[in-house]
Amino acid sequence: MATITSQTPELSRPRRLLVLAICCMSLLLVSLDVTIVNVALPSIHRELHASLSDLQWTLDAYTLVIAALLMLAGSTADRLGRRRVFQVGLVTFSVGSALCAVAPSLEFLVAARVLQAVGGSMLNPVAMSIIRNVFHDPRERAQAIGLWGAVTGISTSLGPVLGGVLVDGPGWRYVFLVNVPIGLLAVVLTALFVPESRALRPRRLDPVGQVLVILWLATLVFAIIEGGRRGWTSPGILTCFAVALVSFAGLIIYELRRPEPLVEIRFFRSVPFSGASAIAICAFSAMGGFILLGTLYLQAVRGFSALHAGLYFLPMAVMMLVLSPLSGRIVGTHGSRWPMVIAGAFLCAAPLLLVGLDVDTSAGVVLASYLLFGAGMGLAGPPITNAAVSGMPSDQAGVAAAIASTSRQIGFALGVAVAGAVTGAGAAEQFGPAFATATHPAWAISSGLGLVVLVLGALTSTRWALRTARRTAARLALD
User: Fold this and answer.
1) Closest by alpha carbon to 385, among 76, 153, 84?
2) Which of 64, 66, 146, 351 has the maximum number of C-beta atoms within 10 A of its C-beta?
3) What does the alpha-carbon distance between residue 4 and residue 393 come to, in Å, rounded to a whole number?
4) pLDDT tens for residues 166-222?
5) Which residues, other chains included, contact 104 with Cβ-Cβ below 8 Å and sequence gap of 6+?
6) How confident is the model at residue 76, as a pLDDT?
7) Architecture per CATH, 13-198+262-478
8) How far is C-alpha 20 from the chain's CA centre?
9) How far is the C-alpha of 252 from the C-alpha of 245, rounded, in Å?
10) Which of 95, 400, 440 is nearest to 276 (CA)?
């Protein structure tokens, strides 16, 4: 049975834009923290004596927990109130960030990253649900989502630049401290200006579904990250893969039988929604590996400072900043087909430039690759988000937005895990010239993911696909 949402009263345009800006502050926090930490990894490696797999966990402990809890956060916000859950998330995220900044050991740092992620899981899907309920006009909503995507792009790509400034200046711990004042300011602004909204008949909790999601993601990513070090055929790794497979199958079977599931499997009857989820996983998987390996290559192989390495990501940041709102406007007026197809072409071409990466690869080639990749991600963001929330009933905005955000986080976590596994622990531990050669298969995989984005972007925007979206929305509205 579908939930019924309380109607957000019509707000003035300046008030709507202010709410959008506040929601974008939360996105800035979560997205920035995904990538700002990358540029600090060599410093964390030296100070806390971390291995490559340790560094992967520093990233994936964050993205994994967010991915596992996003859907619970979305449905909880529909139940308890979106503004209330949003504020709790901001406070929790800020506390976790402060603890990361004072971490005395890698284990403490990873634990604090988990707390950060618990707060972060309450931000993006809830903020998207707030936007969905505040912007009633479909075209204005698409433009708002485009601006939202621009913040994703700029925060994700400027993370390495800002991180470089902080690491080379006061130190790597400040990449976490920078979140605290932004988070506290967002808490105050939310209390003052964001209207409360909730579902009048909230969905029931689904503890079994939540446990299955956590089991699936945790065992899958653990097996990928630790497989190279422990052995791919070791009993522990094989058991983790088996648990991940059984958990995933069990999740689908169980959720299909629940009237109010944690993961609304019926959404996936819509080809554009299913395609958007798959595209998000592929695109952000490519991005996770791209940024991880690119940052380590520039600092550990080329010997650049953290700031110098971060500046290499500026072309990516600029392209995402410029093209994301443009893509949002195109989606709002002409649909998602061409932005998605062109995005896939860029995401396929960018890693191909780095398949032969070595110590002497020219700066022009590296910068061109980053520029193309940023263009692809900038164009891809708005169509993914718009497909996830625009075709669904407004009363299920929280759940739909959570699934879209979960797909991004799953993709990023898998990208980091696979990139490290493919590169190989042996070459990576040395972080020398052999590391550049060891990355070649990872770039090829990233290019293949871009090709998948291109194909899915074309297939999921056909008339047949759009008809499945309309039928799915109609069925959901009747349930």
Assistant:
1) 153
2) 66
3) 9
4) 999 899 999 999 899 989 999 999 999 888 877 666 667 788 988 999 899 889 988
5) none
6) 83
7) Up-down Bundle (1.20)
8) 19
9) 11
10) 400
The candidate with the shortest Cα–Cα distance to 370, out of 291, 463, 467, 475, is 291
> Residue holding tokens 């110098």?
308
Ramachandran sector of residue 452 (left: φ over 0; alpha: ψ -120 to 50; beta: rest): alpha
**Cα(22)–Cα(35) distance, rounded to whole angstroms?**
21
Q: Is 15 left (phi over 0), alpha (psi -120 to 50) or beta?
A: alpha
d(CA 222, CA 71): 21
Comparing CA positions, the residue from 332, 385, 401, 272 lying closest to residue 5 is 401
Token pair listed for 381: 């963001």
How many helices, marked H, and strands, marked E, lie in the chain? 21, 0
The CA distance from 461 to 25, in Å, is: 31
Ordered DSSP codes for 362-427:
-HHHHHHHHHHHHHHHHHHHHHHHHHHHTTS-GGGHHHHHHHHHHHHHHHHHHHHHHHHHHH-HHH
CA distance 38 to 47: 15
Count the Cβ atoms, other than its own, within 10 Å of residue 432.
12
pTM for the whole structure:
0.82
Over 90: is that where the pLDDT of 389 sits?
A: no
